[in-house]
Amino acid sequence: MAGKVSIIYTSPLRRAVETAREAAAAAGIPVRVAEELTDIDYGAWQGLHWREVSARYPEHYRCWCQRPEEVLLIPGGEGLAGVRARALPLLQRLLGADGDSLVIAHEVVNKVLLQWALGMEAGGFWRLVQHPGCLNIIELHQGEPVVVLLNDTCHLKELRQ
User: Is the CB of residue 17 less than 8 Å from the CB of residue 10?
Assistant: First the structure.
């Protein structure tokens, strides 16, 4: 069962670092920036609305929407396999370490790591939802990852009211 968090690992992107600093200040624990947790590199799609992406890259976009695991590289960026290759080793180290860690990442990173923890095929990417600010808890039970909390946003209830 999850215990007291002793360290926060965060993506280097400003929105994640700011969240990490707030949480760390409240808990009195350190923050480590981990490049492995940065959001997917959307390459040529970065900053575009999905309608623009669809118009400029119709085949890639259609594949991303229907079979994202087959998009090896977003033009000029990366694919889900690349995200998994860089983020999963960090998660595995943290799961095997003494103490509990809080990881502040992004929707795509979270979903790829959750797919691994749940034993899901790569094609299940769109079957997971990650709301902004949600909590997930992954624990190691007898050497195997177990997801004990998924996409929980109850801590944000007051903000929504």
Answer: yes
